[in-house]
Design goal:
alpha/beta; Rossmann fold; 2 domains; four-stranded parallel β-sheet; 12 helices; globular
Length: 258
């Protein structure tokens, strides 16, 4: 075997897929895929199934379950494990019971370890000891209100929230990273343990490290928390690997708030 052939084989082995994350996202979501592909560790593949569930397609959770089940089954075909219901607003919209119904259906149809973005956020907030948070989102106030109620069910208090109410997903993705940083600066003195930046279809993830550096407080975002929760469930890693750019959740396991 030539040196070139050995190098090619070695590279193929290095790039070998060790695990696959399956994400069920709203059909209009355009930010989750590039962000997960950018930040996921080598050897982790990311696969996405889309469901029409937000905007003009918004429905009660009971009416979404069949479509979500089909999406979960398609990700099972791709051998994804875990499989995640990945929409913050929908996962929190009907409280803990509604979120549990979504996760049960995903687990039933995928046969994989299953959770929701909402569950990932709660786990991430607890990991860093964040019991009192400031919430930022691009949503209407009504969506923030549901998220406040959901987090309260899990013992997490939203002490202040900002709902930017910018309109549709098209407007969500146009909000620049600097807008999320500005909001954190404006609310840095609020008596809270940290920030929760809610939504899977924004630039928020790119603001995390700047927010933490400038305010001294941890920041949790929907996509960041979901990637962390997925990696935590993958035996191939043991411990969640450190990932530059994703803030204290990924780089300072010993920095949890007392």
């Amino acid at each position: 075997m030539s040196a070139l052939e050995e190098a090619v084989i070695s590279r193929c082995h290095a790039l070998e897929t060790k695990a696959r994350i399956g994400l069920i996202v709203p059909s209009s979501n355009r930010m989750t895929e590039p962000q997960f592909h950018r930040y996921a560790p080598a050897g982790v593949a990311v696969h996405v199934a889309r469901v029409q569930m937000t905007g003009r397609h918004k429905k009660p959770i009971a009416q979404l379950l069949d479509d979500i089940g089909r999406a979960a089954s398609s990700l099972a075909d791709a051998r994804c494990n875990p499989v995640v219901f990945h929409c913050t607003g929908t996962a929190m919209a009907e409280g803990t019971e509604g979120e549990a119904a979504l996760v049960r259906r995903v687990a039933q149809e995928s046969g994989a370890a299953s959770f929701s973005t909402a569950q990932a956020i709660v786990e991430a907030l607890r990991e860093l000891g964040l019991r009192r948070v400031v919430l930022f989102s691009p949503y209407p106030q009504a969506v923030n209100d549901h998220e406040r109620e959901f987090l309260a069910e899990h013992g997490i208090e939203v002490v202040r929230d900002v709902a930017l109410n910018v309109g549709s997903s098209d407007e969500y993705i146009r909000l620049p990273v600097t807008r999320w940083v500005e909001l954190a600066r404006e609310h840095a003195r609020v008596p809270a343990d940290g920030f929760f930046l809610s939504c899977t279809n924004t630039t928020q993830i790119e603001a995390i490290e700047t927010i933490e550096r400038e305010t001294g407080k941890p920041a949790i975002n929907s996509n960041q928390a979901t990637l962390w929760a997925a990696l935590k469930r993958m035996p191939v890693f043991g411990d969640v690997p450190r990932i530059p750019g994703l803030g204290r959740l990924f780089s300072q396991a010993d920095a949890a708030v007392a």
